[in-house]
Every structure is written in C-alpha cells, then in structure tokens.
Amino acid sequence: MGHPLNSVPSSNKASRRALLRRIASAVLVPDIAGGAIPDTGTGTTVIPIPTRVVSPSPVPALRTPEGPSPSTPSTPLAEARAMRLDGDYRNAYLAFHGEAMSSRDRDVRALATLGSAETLLTDRNPGQALEILDEWIDTYPEHPQQYTARCLRARSLELLGPSKRSDCVTAYREALYVANPAHPEVLRVRIANHLFALGQASDAWQELQLAASGPTITATEAGRLVVLEALNGRYAEARDPVRVAATALASLDAAALVGRIPEELAEIAWRAVTASMAIGDNETANLIRWRIVTDWPETPTAFLALTELGSSTVPAWARARIAITNSKWQTARDALDWLLANSPTDPNRGRIRAMRAVAANALGDPGARVQLDASAAEAPGDRWGARALWEAAESRRDGGDLAGASIRYAKLATDFPGSTEAARALYRLGRLLPELGDVAAGNRAMNGAADLGPIGFHTYRARAILGRRPARSPSTLPAFIASGALTESDRRIWDDWLATRSLISADARTGLGAPDLAKPLTRLESLLATGFVDEAEDAAREVCQLRQFSPSIVASVAARVQSGGHIPFSMSLGHRLLRILADAGEASLLALPNVARKLAYPLAYGRLVGASAARSAVDPYLVMAVMKQESWFRPEVTSAANARGLTQFIRPTAESVARELNWPNWNWDDMTRPYVSVPFGAHHIAQLIDMFRGNVLFAIASYNAGPGPILKWANGDYRRDDDLFVEGITYRETREYVTSVATYAECYREIYGVN
Fold first, then answer.
1. Among candidate residues 442, 466, 490, the one where a domain is terminated
2. What is the pTM of this model?
3. pLDDT < 50: residue spans in the chain
C-alpha cells in the first residue's frame, strides 16, 4: 500500500494553495533479510540471524493510547506520577511514599510503593530503590507488575556499577521467569553483555542464541533489530568478518522495516558496505552503495557512496540531489547541466533549472541573477522555484536594489503561498516598502508575515515590530500545567481535520486498537514502563511504520510515548508529524490543530518551568524554548563542552548560580536533575535579560556565546535593531541559536498563550 498522504486529492492541495495565494495577495499592493550464517571455522559460536515474520498473530487490543480522559478525577497516585514525569522527583517520592503509608487498599499500596522506587531510580538513587524493590517483590509475589518490578530491580543493580554484574545477570534471569515477558530479547542481550564483561563468553553466546531464536523476537522487527545489533557488535569483537557482514545486512533490512529516518538508514547501510568490503565482497558493497544513492540521496552518507561508485556512474538526477545536500555546488551544476542538455522532455525541467540557478548563485556566477529569475517562473509551486526567487530577491537587496527586491518578494509571496520563503518575503516587504514610500502596503505585508505560513524568526520579528501584545502564560500554575494537556476536544478537532483533508487511510481509522498492532504496542508499553527508552524508540517507530506513518497513527503513538515519560522522542515524532503534514500541503503551524502543535512543542516539565519562571520573573515560554534548543528535553545529556542537563550549564556558571540561589547541598551532578537545572536556567536567563537592559535577543545570544561579544555585535547599542544585531553575529552557531530560540518561544506563545 502506498503512503496514505499520496491519497490526498490534488484538487484539495490546489484549493488550499489558492486560498493562501488570495490571503497573500490581500496584504500586497497590486503591482508588487537473511538466513543462517555459515560457520567459517573462526571458533565463534554460530547464531542464526533472527528471521522476519510478516504477520504476527493477533492478541487482544490494549486500552486506548492517550491515557485517561482529562475529565477523569485525579487520584493521589496520578498526581504523584505527574510530578515524576514532570521532573519534580523529590515531591513525587514524598507523594508516593505518603500514599503507600496511608492507604488501606493493598493494590494502591503496591502501586504507590513501586512508584516510589521508580522515582528514586529516575533520580539516580539506585541503592534506596533496590531496597524498596527487594521488599516489594517479596511482599506482592502475585502482583501483575512483578515483571516491571524485576526489570527495575535489574536496572538498579546496573546503576550500582560493575561490582554488581553477577547480581544483574541473576536479576534479569529472574525477570525472564515471569509469565509472558514483553521483551525477553532485551533482557537476554543485557544478560549477555554482563556475562561477556565477567569473562563468561560461552554462557553469553548461549544467551544471544536464545535471544535470536526465541518466539517473541520474531513478532516485532524492533525486537529483531535489538538482537542483530548486539550480534553485530559481538562478532566484530570476535573478529568474525563474515558474520559481521551478514548481521550488518540483516540490521539494515530490519531498520528499514522499523522506520528509521533516512540519515540513520544511510549510516547503517554504510556499515554494511564496510563489512562487505572487509570480506572481499565488492559486489554486495556496490549494491548497497547504489541503494544509498538511490534511496537516501539527501544524506551526508550518500556523498561517500557517490565518491566510491564514481560520479560518472551515478545518474545525473541522483548526483545533483546528493551534491546539493552536501553543498558540492560544482558537482551539482555539472549534473544539472547534463540533465538540461540530454533530457529535453523531462517533466521536472523547471525544477532542474531552478536547482541549477541556485548552484550557480552559490558558485558566484555573475549570470546567476538572471537565471534565478527565469527559473523561478518555470517551477511554479515547487520548493526549488521558491528558493530561486528568494535568492534572486536577496541578491538585489544586498546589492542595494530595493525596488527590484520588493518586486521579487511580492511575487514570491503570491506565487509560492504557504512556503517558508513566502512568509519571510512578506516580512522583507514589511521592512522595505516603507523605505520606498508606501507605509500602508508595508504595514499590510508585515501583518501578513505575522499571520501567514510556517512560524519562523520572521514571525517573531513581525509581531514585535507591530507591537502586538505578546501572549502570556495562564495566571496560575495549575492552569499553566493544564494548558499542556491534550484534551478530548483537541482530539475530536484533530480527527475531523484529518478526515476533511483525506489525510487518514482506511486501515488507520481503527487507530491503535487494530489486532496486528497489539504485540508491538504491548512491547512498547512495557519498554516505557521498565525504562528501556532506547529500545522503546524503535518499538514506537515500528508501530508507525506498520501504518506507513499515517498522521493519525503517528500522533497516537507520540501521545502514548509522551504519557510514558519519554518526552524527547515523543517530541521528535511530533516534528516528524509536522513534516508529514507539510508534505501534504499543510505547512502552517498557525493553522494546524492542537494535537500536532502540542506534540511538537510540549509543555515539558511544566510544573518546574512555571514555578521557576514565576520566581525569577521571566517568561516561561522563553525558558521552555531554551530547554528545547539546549537539550531537546533530555535531562541527563552532556555536551562536548561538558555542559549538563536540561538547561546545559557549564560548571563555573552552575557554581555561580548555586551561590546566588544559596542552593543547599548543591553538587555538580545535580545539574542532570530537572528540579535543579530548570530553576538554575530560569534564574540565569533572568540575570542576562537584566544585564542587557531588557533586550531578550541579547540575553539569548549571551546564553550561548557568553556576554563578551554581545555589545560588539550590537555595535555598542542596547537598542540595536534586532535584524541588524542578528546579521552582525559572527558565530554561525550563535546566530542560528538565537533565531531558533526566538522562534520556539513564539511557537509556545502561539500554542499555549493567553491573549
């Protein structure tokens, strides 16, 4: 079956483009796989590659993925769990512990005690968590959460360090004895890793053998991929190149079926190329190289494959796409010239000319301006036509031809509605037309930039220039937190919106309750509950892939992952959903329903952000935007510069803020704890805003680059025009950082703010 988005009637897309064109025009003046691995006698235990099963047997459907309805009365356990998911581990533990001590209901006590142990484990206190889990397992031997408890116990032992490896092996094996474990292959791979570290290679290979041949592993591609990647690494250590090559190929097959993104698939494919070359299998290596250049041309890896295949052997169209992706402009222009000379009837000829003009402009070709103008007219509605016209306008603006630039910006806004370039063009017009004497038309264009198209830095700037009152957060902390929830109303609007745009396929209408999704979903839910988040990501992708990444399924899976506490990946799925919708002609975040917007821009750690921002008198949406940019909401991430946590502090800055806040018993490791990093971040942002006399963009730039170069970029002017300030930032990373954070903050205000 084809991608469900391919079923969108072209007339619908055209009508939406026509509507956007009318809106744009209104603000402008009229004149403007595998089998068994052969034993090669290396002495390594031979383990069969787990084979793929196309149709896993159905099991009863699970409950709906989105969690309890907002109308469901909150319980103490639900409130404690919400605190834990929000990073408020100390209060979450107290809430769980209090309920465990006070409740007369045995099941409530069991769940509360288990919740307290999980909270301690999340807060990296494995010793205390282990004590609670040991007692829990003995006290509730028949409880349905025994498997979860035993997996958490094994993970607690892992966190206690290498001295507990033998205990880890025993703990994971005990978890396997529980009836119907949801992801036995993950546990067996963990057991094998510990056994290898203990020097018990024979037992370790046996565990991998069981993982590869067990019945559950064949039920999901994500589970198969876990074993294949483990085998590949172990065969590499054993210097068994034949089996390394075989598992590399099988891993590529499984990763594609799981739904990994093109960049990841190309990297896995390149490992298979390297493995095939190591055993002298040049034919297979070349076949994989060809797959890279044809299936994933717009990746960095594709250029490596192109180079090794020989540029002249690769079709010109693929060669051009690869070269442009990797900014190899001369190679791109040569390939596009060949296409223009040898494919006179190619239906994509307009796109080819536009791409060629962009390449020529990048190379500094003096005739590029004329080519950009001409090619844009030949590629109506095409993203390359929009880019060509944008570069034509920008080149004239940079050369001082404001009238010529404004004509092209206006054409871009009307001929390519809904594109990123169109909205940026309206902003440019809003700045240029008053200089050309037409203030009213400039004002109309600026309002269009504020309201039309995808939200970007231009949207933030347009609203600031127009003096529109910025959206503020809800007046109370509970209201701020509640604003982040996906409500039943949100979901109804989302379903109706998809249906009216034909963006939901027949087999996606049953949602996550379809029988063939039950096993992958059971595995996903268990992985999230037991904290195996890396494995859960592929499990979530697989469910989406089984429905060809239908927007409705992607949204449902992202909501489930988010409710399971893995915000970074649920947000990544949310952004993937935005790209899917953009490909279907729905590019404007302003016009999308809340389900898509809230998944891509979640109010992560809302309690901590709301409270910390209020204490520091700073915009909570700005704090949220900084966290999204700095860490993608991953609390334990550490950068190459050893910056830590959600708000990515380096040690000297963290020590300074700890003193200023008089933080009790602070230590450097605390920066990976949300309840420390969030208030530290809010305080530091407020400090920087105060340092730069209220200039938010200066403060954002300083957060990334330090305060030293800010006034140099601002030319000593605290009231420097924001556009001139950003253009003057000489660090590319900081310039992109500033525009991203400002854009994210504007998106958050648009989605959650109160007027």
1. 466
2. 0.89
3. 1-13, 15-42, 55-72
